[in-house]
Every structure is written in C-alpha cells, then in structure tokens.
Amino acid sequence: MENPTESSFNINALTNEHYGLLIKRAVELYQEVGMDIENITYKKNPIVESFEYVKASVNKPQEFEAEMFHFHAKLLKDLFEIRKHSEKDFKNYVEKIWQPNIGIGLYGEKFEIHTYAQLIKLNYPFIKQKDGDGPDFRLTFNNEHIFIECGTAQFVDGTVPDFIRKLEAVFAEKNSKSYVDHNVALWINVSDMSYHYTIENGNIIDSLLREFAEDKIPILRYGCLFFYYPAISLLSSRGKGCVVYEKSDKIAIGLESFMTNLRRSVDVHEDFLLLRKP
User: Is the same domain home to 137 and 261?
Assistant: First the structure.
C-alpha cells in the first residue's frame, strides 16, 4: 500500500462524511503498521485514548478534533516514511510506542519519529543510534559527523502547567548526559507547552523560549539549542512549525553549517520554519 500523504488527511474543510472516511482509513493504516487501534487491551495507550475521542466526534468535527486527528495523520505519515527507509528502525519504533502503559513517554518517541522522518527528507546520510549509546542520531554533513539529541517537554494530564519548571527539568536532564559535545545539537519538542501557553496567554510561546535559551547558553554543553513546536492553526498557517534557536560560542563548525543549511531549507521543510530574533 502506498505511503499516506498530507493530502490523504485533509482536515481543513471536513464534512461529516469525509471525517468518517478518514477515521476508517486511519484505522486501516494503523492495522497495516501492526497497531490494532481498536484493541481494548491498549485502551490506556495515549494513541488509543485520543483516537477514541476523535471517533466519538465523527458527527461534529470541530477545530480541536481536527487538530487531534492531525496528530494521528502525522504519526502515520512519519512511520510510513521510516518504513521505506529502514524496516528495522520502523519495527523498533512501533514496538516502543505500541505498549499498553507507555503514558506520556509516547510523546518523546513521537518527536523522535518525526525528527527521523524529517532527516529522511533532508537527504543527508544518517543513522539512528542505539538507545544509551550516544545521541539519538548521527549524521554525515560535509564529510563530518554531527549528532542530534531529542527531548520533549510534556505535561502530565491534569497538572497545572509550570512552563519554566518543565523547561528547567528537561534541560538539566539532557545537559547532564555523558555524551554531550559541541558537535551535538539539542532539539527539544515543546508542542504541548506551546498549546497550553497559547490557551493561557493568547499568544505563541517564542518569547519565553528565547529568554530561556539565552539564559542557558552560558552553561549549554551542546553546540546549539533548538526548540521545536507546531504552529497553532488559529494563529498561523497549518503545517508550518516554528523554532527558537540559539548556538554556543563553541559550536562545532560542521554542526553550525548544518543548522545554517537547515534554515535555508525552510521553504521545502516547513516543519522547521525558523524564527530568529532580530
């Protein structure tokens, strides 16, 4: 079966009939990758929980339901991209995310899966490193090895969001890794934080992230700090992501060149739209 595309999951102008067909198609695609999303054994898995909500809204799809469906569409699309690239890595990711009690750990894995799919699009040689053996990805760029370490700042459902405290915790944990070096980029997914911040404050989170990044640069042991979050559709165009990026004075030349090239690729790879400070 062909790889699903963004157009396969058009949620910009849903009718009830189309929404129902998309849900049915998503169930089929989940089954194809080895995930029976209707299996009650996995009812506490966040993928199943959110999909049940999506299915329950089949007769009244609204903006929020569409956003939730987009979560599943992107995950499936990324998994199919990885499957074409490496069957081994694909199976490893499915095994990781398809656990009955994975909890919020799912969101860290999902960001790593999304990063993997984006690296495929960038078309540079790379490998997914074994967990615990070093940063998540090793790339070859201009005949140099550079690395990417992924992290995710995710709130537990039902807790009151404390944005700075969560950022501090994720940063401290990642900055203490033994394999940190100036040829390693730290990429942190703050999608969940972005959502809660917009709900609370009515604007996007980039100013807070910039202030935090600037404050941490003096003690950053990585070559650069890269916060990623998707655009909130009410404030920006769907499909485009935003980042806040700060680099260390000691960043490796190869890594800095890679990040510069990434910014130049923005028109092609909209998930990594870069918002630099003036």
Answer: yes
